[in-house]
Design a protein that fits this description.
Elements (H helix, E strand, L loop, with lengths): L10 E5 L8 H5 L6 E5 L4 H4 L5 E4 L6 H5 L8 E4 L10 H4 L4 E3 L6 H17 L1 H9 L15 E5 L3 H12 L3 E6 L3 E4 L3 E5 L13 H4 L5 E4 L13 H6 L5 E4 L8 H10 L4 E4 L19 E3 L10 H18 L17
Parallel strand pairs: 1-2, 1-3, 3-4, 4-5, 6-7, 6-10, 7-9, 10-11, 11-12, 12-13
Antiparallel strand pairs: 8-9
Helix pairs in contact: 5-7
């Protein structure tokens, strides 16, 4: 259970970057809250003492790790992101501080992004746009989407929304997760996310599914198990006509291996919304590789997304103040919200 007996008029700190979250007045006007404090990463060590609740609005900052020794009263950290890999440092993981995330806000937008990329690949939209700019009339044939197979790596809510979208347009969807199983309502067959020939229980793994997939979608959290998962061996198991779509975290893909795979024609293309280091440097070869599509970590960012993030946090804050159970509690031993 993740219920609190909150302190009388707790102190709430908002760790922000260039932009402040909307709706701050809704907290500042709440008589149950003692103080709302704003801090940048540089200001965090000085302002963290005495803080009970921390909203991490600076989405990918690692500032809390370096300031952790100053967290003398912190009972709850909320991340305005779905992934919390930047918060899974030993001090916080091993503490009694509860961590929650923004699970649910990005599920549908990211699924729409993936569907758009799949259709764009199949219908050759990039080539169409290139030909238009060249004023070039060249008839060509494109691929069907219906009847193709997609493999979704990651069975959380984002992966499930992706599966539903792809199924709706006629793709056959499989998935890989931490445990193999059959009869899943969204994925059907789920294999173990491992490149071993067989899982611990003898069940199929990614080795069986990768050679059959036309689209491989990475939607898993960044953990020790997924870091560097998409390497040369992984890519070498894919069809030469297959495409990779990564909407998870950049370090899940070994970028040097992906660059080599695209250059060598091991796979046909990759749509990448996340990268090992962000922003992606102008000198990165990923910008101009054959079949590559680069977007600036925006697959879940639709009009109104900041308001949705703040609404979720304020709902959880009301729960905290009322002593009710919090939503989206992260299992810190796993690095994500289970279930």
């Amino acid at each position: 259970m993740n219920r609190f007996t909150p302190p009388d008029r707790p102190r709430v700190l908002v760790l922000h970057g260039d932009a402040l979250p909307p709706g701050l007045a809704r907290m500042e006007d709440d008589p149950r809250i003692g103080e709302v404090v704003l801090a940048t990463a540089d200001e965090l060590p000085a302002k963290l003492p005495g803080t009970h609740v921390l909203l991490v609005w600076d989405l990918f900052t690692e500032a809390l790790a370096s300031a952790w020794s100053r967290a003398d009263s912190l009972t709850w950290v909320h991340a305005a992101t779905a992934g919390v890999d930047n918060l899974m440092f030993p001090g916080l993981v091993n503490s009694s501080t509860t961590v929650t995330n923004s699970r649910g806000v990005f599920d549908e937008p990211i699924a729409e992004y993936v569907l758009g990329q799949v259709i764009a690949f199949a219908k050759g939209f990039q080539q169409t746009w290139d030909h238009q700019h060249e004023r070039r009339w060249e008839h060509r044939e494109t691929e069907r989407v219906s009847g193709r197979r997609a493999l979704v790596v990651g069975t959380g809510p984002i992966g499930r929304h992706i599966a539903r979208k792809l199924t709706a347009v006629g793709l056959e969807v499989r998935a890989s997760g931490s445990h193999a199983r059959g009869g899943d309502p969204d994925f059907g067959t789920v294999v173990e996310s491992s490149l071993a020939e067989r899982g611990d229980d003898g069940a199929p793994t990614l080795c069986a599914e990768l050679p059959e997939a036309d689209y491989v979608v990475i939607a898993a959290p960044l953990t020790d198990a997924t870091h560097g998962l998409v390497d040369r061996r992984f890519l070498g198991l894919m069809k030469p006509t297959a495409r990779l779509v990564n909407v998870a975290r950049g370090p899940i893909v070994v970028e040097a291996d992906l660059v080599a795979a695209l250059n060598d024609g091991l796979i046909a293309g990759a749509a990448l919304d996340v990268f090992e280091d962000e922003p992606l440097k102008a000198v990165s070869p990923l910008w101009g590789l054959p079949g590559s599509v680069v977007s600036p970590h925006m697959s879940g960012d639709v009009v109104g997304w900041r308001d949705d993030l703040m609404d979720l946090f304020l709902d959880n804050l009301a729960r905290y103040l009322d002593g009710r159970e919090l939503l989206n509690v992260v299992d810190k031993s796993r690095g994500y919200v289970p279930g």
